[in-house]
Amino acid sequence: MISFFGFLLFGEGTLDDVLANFDTDLGIPFSAVLNDAVRLSYAAHLMLVFPVVFFPLRLNIDGLLFSKSKPLVMDNFRFASLTISLISVIFLGANFIPSIWDAFQFTGATAAVCIGFIFPAAIILRDRYNIATKGDKILSVFMIVVAVASNAVAIYSDAYALIKQNKTSRE
């Protein structure tokens, strides 16, 4: 919705980062007030959405790392340690990743491959009810190998482009 209304407001002059358009005078009455209102509403949106996204992240990481332990709500030390660790990683990522587009490149290279190829093939390999045939399992292993290889190429090309871009910007 932000992108859609940003395009309606700025037309062909819409920048990649829509919020960057609100750094200038919009040429309308109360332009500064509108700029501040948009920025404050976006900050409020982030503050309200973060806990909704962070809760399942913390719960899933706890389930992966401590699957045999008692529930997270019953262990205050583990809850606090996991929360502080995750927030620290998120804070460091937010401060040291130069551009959101870099993060999107690596997320797209990994998440899309996992969701589209690796997870479905892993489900077939796990096959609790013995529905999958031997051919299905061989195809699943092949699909995982190809997905991991293509994922490695995508991550390598993203990292190479990022390093090359940093070298050219320094020179």
UniProtKB/TrEMBL annotation:
Name of protein: Putative amino acid transporter, transmembrane domain-containing protein
Pfam family, one: Aa_trans
Membrane topology: Multi-pass membrane protein
Main location: membrane
Record GO terms (molecular function): L-amino acid transmembrane transporter activity
Keyword Cell cycle included in the entry's annotation: no
Keyword Transmembrane helix among record annotations: yes
Domain Amino acid transporter transmembrane: start-end pairs: 2-157
GO cellular component terms, A-Z: organelle membrane
Transmembrane spans: 39-57, 77-97, 103-126, 138-163
Keyword annotations from UniProtKB, A to Z: Amino-acid transport, Membrane, Transmembrane, Transmembrane helix, Transport
Localisation per UniProt entry: Membrane
Signal peptide: none
Coiled-coil residues: none
